[in-house]
Amino acid sequence: MIDYKRLEYLNRKVKNETASSSEKDEYMLLLYQNKSITKSQYDKYLSDKSSDNVLGAAITIGGILLLGYIIDKLANKSN
């Protein structure tokens, strides 16, 4: 199961361009292990860590995961 608090923290740092290299690596690994990005996307990140395209897509994907988590929490709270 994904650690949504950690995902939120890392997503915010990557998005604000304040994440260290190891935090970016952790963020991408978290998304890959959750099957939110493909192996080829993860491999592309590993081969070119300076690629803004891959990180940009990852920020969007992470944001969607977080939004889904929040919606699920709100839906379950109202039941």
Q: How does the major sheet shape up?
A: none
The strand count comes to 0
Estimate the strand proportion: under 5%
Gyration radius over CA = 13 Å
Instruction: Summarize model confidence as the mean pLDDT.
Output: 92
Could you give the distance between the termini?
23 Å
Outline, from the CA principal axes? Answer: elongated
Helix count, DSSP H or I runs of 4 or more residues: 4
Walk me through what this model shows.
The protein is an all-alpha fold and 79 residues long. Helices cover 76% and strands 0% of the residues. The protein has helices spanning 4-15, 21-33, 39-47, 52-77. The protein is elongated, with a radius of gyration of 13 Å. It starts with a helix and ends with a helix. The mean pLDDT is 92.
Quick synopsis:
This protein is an all-alpha fold and 79 residues long. The chain contains four helices and no strands. Helix 2 runs antiparallel to helix 3.
